[in-house]
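User: My advisor, Dr. K., asked me to get a structural model of this assembly before our group meeting. I'm new to this, so sorry if the format is off. These are the inputs:
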Amino acid sequence: MSAPSTFPQPQPGRDAAYPFAANFPFVAHAVPAFAGLAWLNHLIDSLAPKAVQQIGTSYLIQYYHVPAAISMYLFFLLCAVSSVVVLVHRSPAWDRRAHAFGQTALLLNGIVLGTGMVWGKTAWGVWWDWADPRLLTSGVAFLMYLGYAMLQDALRDDPRRARFAAIYGIVALLNLPLVHYAIKWFGTASHPVEVRMKTPEISMTLNVAMGVFPVFWLLIYRWVHDRLVLRDRAESVMARLRRLEENA
Amino acid sequence: MSGWRAFATVVRWDLAREMKRRSTLTAMAATALLVLFVLSFAIDARRADDPRIRSGLLWVTWIFAGAVGVERAFGAGRDAGAMTEGFLVAPIPRAALFYGRTASTFLLTTAMSALSIPVFLVLFDATVPASGIAWLAAVSLLTLLGMSALGVLLASMTSTVRGGDVLLRLLMLPVLLPAVAAAVTGTGLLLDGQDPGLRPAALLAAFDLTFLGAGHVLFDHAAEDRS
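Assistant: The format is fine. Below is the predicted structure of the whole assembly, which you can bring to the meeting.
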């Protein structure tokens, strides 16, 4: 029924940063990212005792929740921008970037939801509050980007995958402001919109977390991206082996 | 063929097919009835006197029945598939096919909602104030238009994918949630005898413009390998 796609075939490995990272993405990117997160955790522990004294232990979650939420929106945006480039230039490299941005954003979305729910349980006594606009916005975004991941997976061997995923990546981003306003207008706000920073330690720790968190998540993104490069390379080798076997 | 003539041809052909077979409208109406009955058993209809819950029941029914119509926009039988391929290879603007199919899906889902609302009012003993009928009609039409535009764009991708009907719902329903929130809130206030104001309609209009515009630009990419 469908003619072959005009989308160029992937060229694995072409855009990997350097050979070591291309071959060992976990060691090159994920290990430094996890080490950095552990360091950030130590920093928060050592710098935030005054915040804990003033507001309580649950306040510590803000150092993860707020930077994760900001990084999540940044990655949604990067996924959509990469998707536009995929549709305009039909570039397999940008397709891998869009795919990796989408996967990393979904992971961040899970962290935002998880930390938000833990905070909600401590502050409001419930894990989930249907009236909270920001929790609901994150929940809807999670469902949309889960759909994005499922679309990528369902069409894994289909040449139309990159194009269809790019279209949905753009649709999902276009919908985010509508989700935000729908829930803001038709829900009842109970989310803390502003957390007051009363001591230099509290604000400095949050600023460090805000600055450092996206960098760590860019490393995680790069790990996911290079895994996709390796997967494409493995599939290309397998296809070549199958052709050799058929010709033998 | 000009864009308008192509648009009219697509709508006319889709509606003529439906008049001949009535397969999509029948499937949607049957789904609406089934969902209404299942929901009335699930939540005990006699106690569902909260207007917001009744409004939610109505919109869940319309969304699930409407999804059946959207699903069939590109895949209802061999003749529909063949005609879609025909439209795609014809020298007509792709946007005309998108808008034409959106219009025909919108008309069919509107017919489904018009058929099912009396059943809903009877089963749940609900009343719509006379002054609110125009408001309910406007919000229903805006929601169904947005759902048709979004659904046709996504169905053009999933209709040729194995398991595409399930995938279509997984992709469409989360994106549809802001429109559902606006429609449910507005209808709930209306059933409660209150004035819903303009906010639900404003959000639904923004939703429609977003996805009609997105379809205009993206449908070409979604359907390009079918020509």
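One thing worth pointing out at the meeting: The radius of gyration of chain A is 21 Å.

User: Perfect, thanks a lot.
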